[in-house]
Write the structure tokens for this entry.
Amino acid sequence: MYRKLIYIPRIARGLATSSGSSILPPATLHLKSGQSFLGRSFGAPKSIYGETVFSTSITSYTESMTDPSYRGQILVFTTPLIGNYGVPLNTAPSDAHDVGVVLESQGIQCAAVVVSDVAEKFSHYAAAESLASWCQRYDVPGITGVDTRAITRLLRDQGTTLGRISVGSDASLPAPNATEFWDPSLENLVDQVSTKEPYEVNPSGSIKIALLDFGAKANILRSLIRRGAAVTVLPWNYDFNAVRDQYDGLFLSNGPGDPMHCMEAALKLRRTLEEWTKPVFGICMGHQIIGMAAGLDAYRMTFGNRGHNQPVLALASSGSIKAGRVYVTSQNHQYALKLQDPFPRGWEPFFINCNDSSIEGIKSTAESGKNVWGVQFHPESAGGPLDTIEMFSDFLTECAAHKYGAVPQKNDETVPQMHTFESAPKIAVAA
């Protein structure tokens, strides 16, 4: 009896689907700072340059790899085993509940992946292929068999570092010269991932939201339409001011790279914030664009925050967010807004990171008469904790209040049922 109970998990593991041959060609990860790590190649058999970053996410490697914010980056996973539950079919309906994909975009967005141990067998009811075959299909190289702990410590000590993965016959070649490394932050990565033409999602929704696409994750769209919003997705540099009267709110999405490449969007948003009174909400890159429009500066962090376990402290209350509470969040960013004293008039800090004291959110003050919020983290997670998911409900509640003239009550059937917005005393923060 006990012997059978012990061996059942081993039998189940043996029935997992194999990802292919365990004989993998050599590969080397070279860092511009001089270190090299020899391993084995999986995925696409090609060499590539990129910006080497690490993520502390324990799960959701498929969501991370399809996040447009990872554009141009060599993604190092600190979790030792990656690929054990495979990759699902990335198709879904396009309706009031979904946006055509299961993951965060149509394909892999990162330049390459680095893992300690890539799973040769995968097992999950929704799995359709292995991580290796998925990477090969999207022409993305990977390296396994390297010490990701050592790589992570290097990146934490010296900061995010340019890198190159050399595959096959390239693996034995000397490391590239410093001038050969490609720096993706010098390019406007947002322009590469943003939609080129406007399109609508859930057009029958009752609350009309315009979304500026800096590289939006699919789960942002899902989080909006599942709360009754009709979303029009616009290119990152679209002149929203020319059409703003058609909408009940403006949303600014996440995106990759240096926010200074998006100064055009920040200047257009500055006019919006000066002349428009309807709600505005920004996430990640969108948060940085709001901050720049408000007069704050953005700076490049040493190694950024990437993972699903970043604690942030709420400095003010707003809707579902309560001042003084710590929320665990999902994040993926290299840049942040500078905390300054005094803060721009009409604005106040909203969240601060509990680990490094960086700004994690800003908001308009009650005295400003505006309804604007920006957060550096991802309330929609995917993957990650759902501590702050109701910020989407808070935003749409305010949009409904402006549209219908009052915050909807629970017995009001003319608008989506959401949490009411609550005012609360503000907490000042010292720079």
Observations:
- The first strand starts at residue 17 and ends at 18.
